[in-house]
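Q: Could you fold this chain for me?
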Amino acid sequence: MTRATRAVIFANGELSHPESARLALQPGDVLIAADGGARLCRQLDLAPSILIGDFDSLDEDDLAYYQAAGAEIIRHPRRKNYTDLELALRHVHSLGIKEAIVFAALGKRWDQTLANVLLPATADLAGMTIRLADGFQEIMLLRGPGQLILQGQPGDTVSLIPLGGDASGVSTDQLEYPLYVETLYFGATRGLSNVLLAEIAEVRLREGLLLCVVIHLKDEGRQAIGD
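A: Sure. Below is the predicted structure, expressed as structure tokens.
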């Protein structure tokens, strides 16, 4: 059996573009539902191989449905130290999978949304590439020293937001407002609303953490994130 190289996780937030989530799946992906994310999978007629969480957001009918379908059920107590999405990401990390795309990580609860956006910065998940996707928007984290390739279309919006302190030694290629070994200061907004000039751009970082947000144009005929 070929070892999986990517996980696709459905969390329990809002899914603004369901079809793009369905199209994101590739042969060999490990599909995981974090608690109530199993409901979204069922609505999309997707069969996760793993369900993980305390299942306080999942009906017993849905749980029984996937259990009968052969999914692995990993149940955690309700009194726990991690959210269901963090449990899912930690499980992916334990499997040796280095890439994960997460759908439905955002929603009406700001506390959950902010916590989910910051999850890729967790030290225990270092070494993983985690992408949060929602319709035409995606969020990724760059750790310094390192580099990140951004893909899209000319005109797409790119925002670079420092986390946990200043991001130093930031350089970019193929962005309208270039940076050359510069510092983006924590709490300041200089890195917002840059623009892609080509289908591929690069961001390099010497030190710190940088949240990279790409907002793709909603041109007619284009699909949302996931393909």
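A (continued): Residues 84-94 form the longest helix (11 residues).
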